[in-house]
């Protein structure tokens, strides 16, 4: 759901120093707090090989400490336990290989990482017009408002398996049945079931700002900052914008 501080720069608008793109991609979900100037209480930057190889007061390098925290089920990093086994393996391999220097050749002229996009399910479809499988990944509220038609949602979005899924990509079948839990500023809880396209929505009143988390198989991804927009996919795009690292993902 994004692990962001609204005051921080979006995680895909940093130029990693001395890191290859595999490692930079893993850290893309960390630097909204662990950026060049750490925010949100983060004690260190994780944007360069120099920063990652520095020795932590707790022992070991910050890269090694990062692997430990990514696997910590009690106090995981990113918040909510977002790190996948593949992410952990990528960072651990870089450490085991001796922290080889590299460059990310996926930077555009503005120094923004352009992450490769995928469609995990292999199915691209805008869905049935007017149905709840319509345009997975699209900014539902923005689209409906611009056309002056369709359901009047207060909150809607799409949950995916990975951060950089293509527009109109139907979510992986394993995502269906996950739940999105919204807690409004009034403490009212709204629980939404993710459908077979990965979409979720509600027309119920939501008291802003709200907090959110995605639940699947007894695990959760927690959104670190409260939000004041119900148009989830307007920030949770293929590349991520407005502080989001990419798509909303299920644990």
Architecture blueprint of SSEs:
Blueprint: H1 21-27, H2 49-53, H3 62-70, H4 85-96, H5 140-147, E1 155-160, E2 179-183, E3 189-193, E4 199-202, E5 211-216, E6 219-222, E7 248-249
Parallel strand pairs: 1-7
Antiparallel strand pairs: 1-4, 2-3, 2-5, 5-6
Helix pairs in contact: 3-4
Description:
The chain folds into two domains: 110 residues, no CATH class; 110 residues, Immunoglobulin-like, CATH 2.60.40. The strands form two sheets. It has a four-stranded antiparallel sheet, with no helix packed on it. Strands 4-1-7 form a three-stranded mixed sheet, with no helix packed on it. 39% of the residues are buried. The radius of gyration is 18 Å and the shape is globular. By secondary structure, it is α+β, with helices and mostly antiparallel strands. The N terminus is likely disordered. Helix 3 packs antiparallel against helix 4.
């Amino acid at each position: 759901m994004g692990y962001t501080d609204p005051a921080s720069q979006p995680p895909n608008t940093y130029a990693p120093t001395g890191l290859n793109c595999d490692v930079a991609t893993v850290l893309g979900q960390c630097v909204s707090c662990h950026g060049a100037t750490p925010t949100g209480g983060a004690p260190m930057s994780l944007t360069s090989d120099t920063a990652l190889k520095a020795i932590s007061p707790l022992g070991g390098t910050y890269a090694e400490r990062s692997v430990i925290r990514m696997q910590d089920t009690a106090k995981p990093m990113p918040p909510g336990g977002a790190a996948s086994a593949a992410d952990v393996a990528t960072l651990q391999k870089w450490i085991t290989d001796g922290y080889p220097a590299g460059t990310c050749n996926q930077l555009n002229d503005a120094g923004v990482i352009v992450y490769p996009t995928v469609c995990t399910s292999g199915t691209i479809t805008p869905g049935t017009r007017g149905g709840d499988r319509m345009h997975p990944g699209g900014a539902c509220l923005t689209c409906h408002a611009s056309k002056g038609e369709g359901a009047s949602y207060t909150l809607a979005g799409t949950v995916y398996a990975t951060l950089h899924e293509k527009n109109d990509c139907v979510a992986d079948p394993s995502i269906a049945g996950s739940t999105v839990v919204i807690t409004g500023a009034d403490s009212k809880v709204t629980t939404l079931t993710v459908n077979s396209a990965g979409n979720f929505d509600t027309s119920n009143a939501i008291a802003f700002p709200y907090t959110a988390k995605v639940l699947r198989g007894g695990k959760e991804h927690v959104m670190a900052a409260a939000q004041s927009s119900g148009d989830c996919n307007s920030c949770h795009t293929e590349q991520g914008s407005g502080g989001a690292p990419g798509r909303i993902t299920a644990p």
